[in-house]
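Today's session is about reading a structure prediction critically. Students often jump straight to the picture, but the first step is always the sequence itself: look for stretches that repeat, for charged clusters, for runs of hydrophobic residues. Only then move on to the predicted structure, which in these notes is written as discrete structure tokens rather than atom positions. Here is the chain we will use throughout the hour.
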Amino acid sequence: MTFPRFRSLILSAAALGAVLPPAAAHQMWIEDLPSPASLVVRFGEFGEGVEKSPGYLDSLTPVEVWQPAAKAGAEPVVRVSTKKSEFFSLNGEGIVPELLAQTGFPVMGKPGAPGKLPLFYLRWHQAGPAAAATSKEPAMTMDIVPEGAGVVRVYFRGQPVPQAALTLWLPGGVESPLTADAEGRATVPAVKAGLILITVNQKEPLAGFQTGKVYDTTSHNASLAWRQS
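Below is the predicted structure for this chain, in token form.
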């Protein structure tokens, strides 16, 4: 299945500098809510605070969400997201074992100069890296794929990323670095109970245009989230 391309938001270059937060200070992830049991997409500083609407949340392109195919040859299940005051909610109740999503910001940068296009790729894996994903193959342009036994593997454009620099985020916003090996694999240490996040990012000298604005860099940002019991 081919998923729709990122839809564009039309914002002036001057407005972009005023309304968009610095990408390095923020993360994006899928999170589980207890009541009612559901999954949502959040954007903000993990463990410290989230962006809201009206505000930075309004600048994101609509979040595209899908469940991976249950078996080889089957189609993914596309789900609909809806922007709420503090997150993007999913159309449907319950917490599924696996979920993937992607979204992005419009071009960021100063007027008169090429900007940067930030893209985000999100993965929820309820079992965490203790269990392998339904498919160990990457499903997004940049992806953190659980392989089981506490191991994750980082991919970019379908290829493993040697020595990828990841960040492990623990409850309360505590962070620590993880480094992948020559095959893009990293072992996640034992963590305490709570929502856990792993992030990785990579800048690519990929130029283009969006709503008439030129960019010379594409920023790829991936995350993997789970609830550690």
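Discussion point for the tutorial: The two ends are 34 Å apart (CA to CA).
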